Amino acid sequence: MYWSKNKLKFVLLLFFASNILISSKQLLANSKGIAPPSKKKIALIIGNADYKGARLRNPIQDAKSIEDQLRDVGFEVKRLENSSLREMSEETREFGKKLRQVDVALYYYSGHGIQHNNTNWLLPVEADIRREQDIEFEAFNLNRLLVEMEGGTKNRVNIVIVDACRTPPTFRSFRNITNGLATPSTQPKGTIIAFSTAPGTVAHDGTGINSPYVAELIKYIKTPGMKIEDMFKQVRKGVVERTSKMSHPQVPWENSSLVGDFYFVEKKAANEDRTRWVEIRNSKDKRDFESFIREFPDSVYKEDAISSINELDREQINNQSSDDYYDISFRSFFGVYNVIDMKIGENLGAGLFHVLWNYEDEDTKVQENGYSIGLILSSWLDTFKQFKDNCYSCDGPSFGANFGTGRVDFGTLKGSKVETGVTVLGLGIFYQWMWPNRLSIVLGGTNVLRNFSILNESYVTDETENVKTHINRRIKSRSDFLPVILFGYSF
To answer: In the chain, what are the domain boundaries?
Structure first.
């Protein structure tokens, strides 16, 4: 084909113009913070804990913690709790269908797991295994998952995380049961398999909210620019430190057939740390600075963030030193009610009327996980100092019906030392013979029970524990309530 000079010039000009236009659009998108199309990432998370006779403490919360982290970094997550064999099988099959169209597929399991004849089996909560022969009928074969991960998207990354090396006591007599899990016999290309402990060894169920493994894992998932292999190294280091004083330290293990680098969070763009630092540098919430350090561990502003954290800690101690602390909690047949963390000058009252009239107010009702903070329901009650004085004076005899008891904890915080006094109150409809006070009038009468009187105590908190957290823990551990009905004369 013959092209004229002018036509050739026009084509070349059009070519360069189109490239300049495309580059300009990309540059504009980057300047506005518009990211390129994100990768498709899915996860199946299973936490099994409610085993009959072999219940585990952490798997449910572990599964929730992992879900939160993965959602934050762009995963579409399906989470199962206390699942049956049928649920595990069906959801794994569906997971296998979906992963063929995605870029990253992650499978996480926490619960009981066993190694039988060099094969790894994950246990559903309703597994009824009385003989070794039952295992293949009642448990989930981990190899089924690995087979599902074969094929599909060419460059897909498969991640398998198993925190399941806890052998139930009833299985220890089985001849072909081995401690821990086995090295997988199959591993698809582009897959990394992580066990919470090395093959042939047993993992620990944690004493805290999470297992030792997950407690470390959730520290690093959202760290920008950290390769997955480096992340698991940090997890291993942390778990070994956490379990070093146990009878057998736990050493996490991984095996990888990845052919490229994988990051849960890509490395931050240049100057992104500066932008973030400008946003938070005047914050009064130290969590902002802690998050900054995790996101930008190599930032030039890291030391400034650490200094800000230390300064906020000092301010907190100074504030605590000048504040009076008190806690009021009441138990009746309607439930337990509580007010905490109020200071001098604030009115008292949250929850008191609920004890008498059973008004609905979940904000003041104590939940399973401890005390909750209520709102002020009445301005009739006086300040903390006046109330404290009244508690000392309202110990006269009374008579009537006592259908609940309460307690007041008050004291002064001075650095890490706490001086507290505890007063236990009888609540009910009383005729107050002596020293009526504002509180007794509102409640229809109250008295300090002489047999509990004033329980004074002083103690020093653990250095790593927040003062108020420490007090609340002490309060919860005491049993000064008298959940009974008393009729007649009371002193």
So the answer is: 41-256, 272-320, 324-490
Does the domain spanning 41-256 belong to CATH 3.40.50.1460?
yes
pLDDT tens string 20-47: 343 444 433 343 333 344 689 999 999 9
Work out the mean pLDDT of the chain and round it to a whole number.
Answer: 65
Per the CB < 8 A criterion, the answer to whether 384 and 410 are in contact is yes
Minimal CA–CA distance to 209: which of 60, 102, 335?
60
Q: Tell me what pLDDT residue 207 has.
A: 66
C-alpha pair distances (Å), 28 with each of 36, 202, 267, 269: 12, 53, 20, 15
